[in-house]
Amino acid sequence: MRMKLPNFLNNSINNLLDMFSSDIGIDLGTATTLVYVKGEGIIINEASVVARDKVSHTIKAVGDEAKKMLGKTPGNIVAERPMQYGVIADFDVAEIMLRYFIRKAHPRRMSIRPRVVIAVPSGITEVERRAVKESALRAGAREIYLIEEPIAAAIGVGLPIEDPVGNMIIDIGGGTTEIAVISLGGIVYAESLRVGGDEMDKAIIDYMKKTYNLAIGERGAENIKIAIGSASPLEEELSIEVRGRDMVTGLPKAIRVDSEEIRRALQNPVEKIVATTKKTLDNTPPELSADLIETGIVMCGGGSLLRGIDKLIAQETGLPVIRAEDPLTAVALGAGKFLEEINHFRKLSIACQI
Fold it and tell me: How many CB atoms lie within 10 A of CB 294?
């Protein structure tokens, strides 16, 4: 039976451990993982991908190196994402990935396990929370805090979330879009939509198949989205050459597509984000709705970089929409600020385990 230590002694031990350990904040995303180390800032920004040999059961690569292998591996090697829709889909592979990132962020200190803060979707279930915590514990964390992504993002972009004022944030990630209205340090209403950058990429892949009988991969679709993707008409439409495999002849093929076509391809996922934004506003208390006329909506996440999506949401809601200064790092920075002022923000975590 484990003996429970007095609070003052337990606190002293934790303070001593902190002297030899570095707290870590993790934005464990479907597409990308960012790691913040207390006192240093964001030091890791890599793909959430693991490449492993199915025959020898060995790990070939993790992170950006593994992403380079997507769609290019021989039969015995598989490059996969352990995260789906912002939560763990493959427990064992997620643990391997977490261990890699924790050790990379915490070199020469692994004899003293770090305290870890992990941002998770607002719609996460208790089972999914437990999976995240257990994976982090097995990967080397000594103490774990889970913080909802909208809260982390709001902290990261500097919103006054503890004031009695309505703050609205839209975080479009790889697997999910988190939309929330926050006041007095808590989420008043939130929607976690399983639509994000990955769904946009899939829409482009499907469009190329149906329209041109051209098969392209995830990386190719992502490149198209970044190069010419948009949610509303552009002042000057763009175009790009797309290369893939002709589904009729089986031979390599190159075509040229323009941004108007890709905008049509992205219409469905974009409309879902707009509709969920309106639903969130419809469920917001009137007093907070009144605040939003002045405070507006703040957008972050990689999906917020899609051309014109801020303009479209502003048109559809009638509210001012602001894109965060650095939308890709908002959640990780929020987890980092949580670490820097953990005694102040501890009450905002949704779960913790020692």
Answer: 10
d(CA 338, CA 147): 9
> Can you tell me the distance from the alpha carbon of 70 to that of 218, in angstroms, rounded to the nearest whole number?
8
> CA geometry: angle at 159 spanning 156 and 161, to 5°?
105
State the chain's mean pLDDT as an integer: 88
Number of Cβ within a 10 Å radius of residue 176:
30
Tell me phi and psi for residue 214, to 5 degrees.
-115, 125
Q: Domain 197-267: which topology?
A: Actin; Chain A, domain 4 (3.90.640)
Per domain, the residue ranges of the chain are 21-151+331-353, 160-195+269-325, 197-267
Tens of pLDDT, residue by residue over 174-197, are: 999 999 999 998 999 999 999 999
- pLDDT at res. 58: 87
Place of tokens 């507006």: 296
Do residues 244 and 251 touch, judged by C-beta distance below 8 A? no
Q: What is the rounded CA–CA span in Å between residue 188 and residue 181?
A: 6
Distance (Å, whole) CA 119 – CA 100: 18
Which numeric CATH code is attached to 21-151+331-353?
A: 3.30.420.40
C-alpha span between 186 and 152 (Å, rounded):
11
Per the DSSP assignment, residues forming a β-bridge with 351 are 146
Predicted model pTM: 0.87
Q: How far, in Å, CA of 88 to CA of 130, rounded?
A: 10
Amino acid at the residue 73: T
The single-letter DSSP state of residue 123 is T
In angstroms, the CA 229 to CA 238 distance is 9
**Residue ranges of the chain with per-residue pLDDT less than 70:** 1-21, 108-111, 349-354
